[in-house]
Structure prediction request, 681 residues.
Amino acid sequence: MGALAALIVKDVKQLLRDPRSLVMILLMPMAVMAMFVAGYGEERSSIPIVVVNLDGGPVSWRLIELLRSSGDFRVVAYAPTAEAGVELVRRGAAYAALVIPPGFSESVVRGRSTRVVTVLDASYATVSELVWQAAVFVVQSFMKAASEEYGTFYIDVERQTVYGPKVSSVDSFTSTIMGVLLHLVPMSLIAVSISRERERKTFEQLIMTPLSSWQIVVGKFVAYALVTIADMVATFGFAVYVLGVRVAGPLPALVTVSLLLLLCSLGLGLLISAVSRNQLQAYQAAIFFFIPSMLFSGFFMPVEMLSPAAQAVGRLLPLYYFLRAFRSIQLRGWGLQDVAGEVTALALETAAFLAAAVRMLRLRVE
Amino acid sequence: MPARPRGAMLAIEAVNLTKVFGGFRAVDGVTLRVEEGVIFGLLGPNGAGKTTTIRMILGLLKPTSGYVRVYGIDVERDRRSVLRITGYMPQHFSLYEDLTVEENMRLYASLYGLGRGDAEERIRELMDEFMLRDFRGRLAGKLSGGTKQRLALAVALLHRPRLLVVDEPTAGVDPPLRRYFWGKFRELKERGVTILVTTHYMDEAENCDRIALMSRGRVAAEGSPLEIKRLAYGGDIIELVTAGDPRPALDGLAASVLEFEGDGSYSRVRLLVPDASEALVPLTRELEGRGVRVVRAYQVPLSLEEAFIRLTSRG
Prediction:
């Protein structure tokens, strides 16, 4: 017992005397919680929707007013026709369209039953469920409040989808799983590559040759890309041919976007590697970077629904662009030209990370 | 000591190098001038600042102040040109342990920009010279300590450097290999390679043409091994065994008594003279002329280690 106690005391002492472990133990949970609150706390943004008011009467405007004041929705556009509203949802400008049919006000006033139509974007399963529940709730509240004035009437909430009717959970989580695999794995793998050479002293010999920083960075980048691309292709094959994941859009487009995220992750990992002094530091930095990626890139919830600060961070993350592009191709059936913005962002970030890695890499042993 | 040839080129000119880590001055105002074609030893105990000094010379560390020129090229400004003419064997084995002997050599031949044919030829030469042929397919990590050292030296010489910098090549190496290494260094010197070598084995430093003694980040003394010893003792030491006490007869001679031991009939006396090789014979003759019978007279071999301790314990 004495020996065991001594061993425990020794390990606790070592943990407390190692500043890096302390950072992990104390700072990490706080940082994660702070980021979580900042992104998902009270300041949360509402769901962008389109309203198509084909009625135009006073009752319909009261319903819209209630919808807006509920805080769950943000009306980003008023479309003149149902088709135009659905098109906005299709293009991803809003997660849903609320269509109020002609004669809505009159039906309510006359105490007849009527309906509103919610057109949901099924490619975001979690959001469309949220929209659906919130819409039903708002309509019910409206019925209760308005019945005092107009007497009894009934509004049915009709559900329609685009890219639906329903996306299976395997399909809807494929982008998330691919995102994790193509981001965290290559990033942490390459992040330790230069610091490992530093720790094993091979760096000291390497930088005695007339190599320049860019050669070292590009050399590592290409080598790790070749190896991890094989990994990516295997993962893809497994998802599509074994799990039977549905791909609505062109497969080459999906592969291109995935490849870009892979390269971008390698670039980011190399930047971490260039500035880290040792492997532990590099590994921790990679994990630390992955946390905001997970919280703010649309992993759990679309970025548009987070707080403005979190959205700003989200728009810097490679994973944000990847998830948007991947989902659009996989679930909406879009082509590469439809996600040109995301593809460009990923390519630019890759180039920026590589350039920064070259700039930060010091050919010294300090 | 060989006279300094007029106009000899400086292989290394390190001026007023200082390196501060945090608040610790690891190297404090070190100036070294290494002439082309010599074996220059950087001596001192562990922690004296030797490795930090050579890392600054090679541009692996940025000096806090001071500058380095290698064959006239400023290391800070044009390190790559310096690297093309410099070979380096670090203190710890720094090649890829998960590559074979041959793969390591090919890799470095390419990194140094050797052409295909040239690389083949050079690798063949060095494998023979350093007895590596039998190990060519073996992973470097699986080699014995001595073979690793030979491989490291071979790789450092791949691109036929004019300057070879070797950090503690003989630390933890058995005596036959130590001797082998010093033999190699002399051979390389014959071929015109300048060598800067660090060691904490004082006895090895006798192999150097010039040495600089480092202690606590500073150069305590610099010169040939002989000069260093003379500096430490104030001259050479000779020992005489004489009949009777020779001390009265030493009056007026350029020799001072360090030690005296006598039993009445015979005496043993240690004398400090400026130069033993010049003084031994005339001094003996002079004493005999003054009636002292000299039984034996010889120069006392001094160790650099002793000299080092004397030089560094003064201040």
Summary: The interface with chain A takes residues 55, 58-62, 79-80, 83-84, 86, 88, 90, 92-97, 108, 111-113, 155 of chain B (CB under 8 Å). The longest strand of chain B covers residues 10-21. The radius of gyration of chain B is 24 Å.
